[in-house]
């Protein structure tokens, strides 16, 4: 999934010439919005949200939550009615907003081991695939882990709210201001704004300074002490909806100020 | 799928809105004698919980049960959250889950 954009990154680094970076920009602008719509990653949801999710087509099609396609979800709740079978473990997950059937296939010894420690009444984090089977929605879980710190419960539901707001802003808040902001950004920055990426246009209105701050904020929020590698430039570009070239400029400026540093290679950065 | 019997996140302030209904609250237990426990809600008021076994004093306990009165919950399920818990975040969540973002929860 990264291969294409990693190629772009190397091109941007080795070339440095105007032609090369421009082509990178075009590639990015055309592929970014499509990609962000296709792969949502693991979406934090409540059972209530799943119960209201609609399907765009038949049973095989994706679910739509908050107006966005959702395939994989993460939930936190209590396990009830756990039943062990030879090939799978089924249970009901109650997160306080509702109950949903869940199933975990047990193929490997690892799966069996993970499921052995799960008991009725236990708080767990479930990551899984949202599916409809004979008209009933269920979660086919690929990971079920006991909640160790109960702050994770508060966190999960706040995460659901955050994701809801994020999706809402994406679905509603971009179209009307689109054409004028593109123009203004082109004038003020003198750079070519990728027109198919409306969020970029919003962010770029105040020029590079804003972009620096976004990059710094993102690195700050996603810094993990246990992970020495830091954040890949492609992740920054993807998550901040900015062209790679902008990210690289921002990182260079921030690096010159001693606020960020590159880690394992020139594509990974951490906040200083 | 069953969303007919949710349990609302509540603090002491929100509890009166759910008399006779299922709620969930986190209480820091000050006193428990196996049966009735008295503790502090996440918004700092006193709550009484029926149906709790003896639990370590000062621990944070999540109770899920029926709201019987403005200060009383009859616990059906309880979970010991231990002696450290971020009550401020939980309290904020109670407010959000009953306010602006109610549609995600109830």
From TrEMBL, chain A:
A GO BP entry: double-strand break repair via homologous recombination
Statement: the UniProt record of this protein carries the keyword DNA-binding: yes
- What top-level branch of life does the organism fall under? Eukaryota
Q: Where is the OB domain?
A: 73-147
Region feature (Disordered): 176-196
- Tell me the compartments it is located in: Nucleus
Question: Could you tell me which Pfam families the record lists for this protein?
Answer: RPA_C, tRNA_anti-codon
Which residues fall in a compositionally biased region of kind Polar residues? 181-196
InterPro entries per UniProt: NA-bd_OB-fold, NA-bd_OB_tRNA, RFA2-like, Rfa2/RPA32, RPA_C, WH-like_DNA-bd_sf, WH_DNA-bd_sf
GO terms for CC? chromosome, telomeric region; DNA replication factor A complex; site of double-strand break
Q: What keywords were assigned to this record?
A: DNA damage, DNA recombination, DNA repair, DNA replication, DNA-binding, Nucleus
Where does the record place the Replication protein A C-terminal domain?
Answer: 173-267
GO-annotated molecular function: single-stranded DNA binding
What function does this protein fulfil?
Component of the replication protein A complex (RPA) required for DNA recombination, repair and replication. The activity of RPA is mediated by single-stranded DNA binding and protein interactions. Required fo cell division in meristems. Involved in the maintenance of transcriptional epigenetic gene silencing (TGS) at specific loci (including some transposons) by regulating histone H3 acetylation, 'Lys-4' and 'Lys-9' methylation.
Q: Which family does it belong to?
A: Belongs to the replication factor A protein 2 family.
Q: What is this protein called?
A: Replication protein A 32 kDa subunit A
> Can you name the source organism?
Acacia crassicarpa
UniProtKB/TrEMBL annotation, chain B:
Q: Which GO terms describe its cellular component?
A: nuclear lumen
SUPFAM superfamilies associated with the record: Nucleic acid-binding proteins (SSF50249)
Main subcellular location of this protein, as a coarse class: nucleus
Q: Where in the cell is it found?
A: Nucleus
Q: From the Swiss-Prot or TrEMBL record, what is one GO molecular function term? A: DNA binding
Family annotation (CDD domains)? RPA3
Instruction: Give the keywords, sorted.
Output: Nucleus
Q: Which GO terms describe its biological process?
A: DNA recombination; DNA repair; DNA replication
UniProt similarity note: Belongs to the replication factor A protein 3 family.
Q: What is this protein called?
A: Uncharacterized protein
